[in-house]
Design goal:
By secondary structure, the protein is of the alpha/beta class. The protein has a single domain, classed as 3-Layer(aba) Sandwich (Rossmann fold), CATH 3.40.50.300. It is built from 4 helices and 7 strands; from the N terminus they run βαβαββαβββα. The chain has a 7-stranded mixed sheet. β4, α3 and β5 form a beta-alpha-beta unit. α1 packs across α2 and α1 packs across α4. It starts with a strand and ends with a helix. The protein binds adenosine-5'-diphosphate and magnesium ion (MG). Adenosine-5'-diphosphate binds next to α1, α2 and β7. The site of magnesium ion has 5 residues, from α2.
Length: about 160
């Protein structure tokens, strides 16, 4: 299943993240594709705020993963941009982060292939003009039955 959203600015992007947070109910695996500056961290911020996080969300570029223990969910936010070798994931015990009761959000998942598990959703963010300003197109693709369920909640 496949869904396309557009977001004219960063606030709209965060709103998309909040909608996604409601639909995924705090668990699953979501890959975030897109170039530097595509809006992956902004969308993640919206998801985290939607799940009750208050405060800053920075991309864990150097630590690779940032955990969030929220009232309604445990979230692991990965940024694998600086991952040089997928073996680094083994060293950090990455399997523990992809738990069925947690939500894993992964920026730059291609850097972690082929070790990463199959995601429920793959999101692809690309620039998209809104009149004179540049917004973003967000394509949401399901990869598992649970991913289909999430997208069904968003459309239904
Ligand atoms: N839908 C959008 N339209 C316009 N600008 C956006 C949108 N979403 C995010 N931005 C802006 O793009 C910049 C990069 O966003 P960021 O989320 O850090 O990208 P990434 O994590 O993909 O590198 C930020 O200044 C952010 O405010
Ligand atoms: Mg980022």
């Amino acid at each position: 299943m496949n869904l396309v959203w557009t977001a004219a600015d960063a606030d709209a992007m965060e709103d998309c993240g909040r909608r996604l947070a409601q639909a995924c109910a705090g668990h699953g695996i979501i890959f975030l594709h897109g170039e530097l500056g595509a809006g992956k961290t902004t969308l993640t911020r919206g998801i985290l705020h939607g799940l009750g996080h208050v405060g800053a969300v920075k991309s864990p570029t150097y630590t690779l993963v940032e955990p969030y223990e929220l009232a309604g969910a445990t979230v692991f936010h990965f940024d694998l941009y600086r991952l040089l070798d997928p073996e680094e994931l083994e060293l950090m015990g990455y399997r523990d982060y992809f738990r069925s009761d947690a939500l894993a959000l992964v920026e730059w998942p291609v850097r972690g292939e082929p070790l990463l598990p199959l995601p429920d959703l793959e999101l692809t963010l690309t620039p998209c003009p809104f009149g004179a300003v540049m917004g973003r197109r967000i394509e949401l693709q399901s990869r598992t039955p649970y991913g289909v369920e999430i997208l069904s909640r968003l459309t239904g």
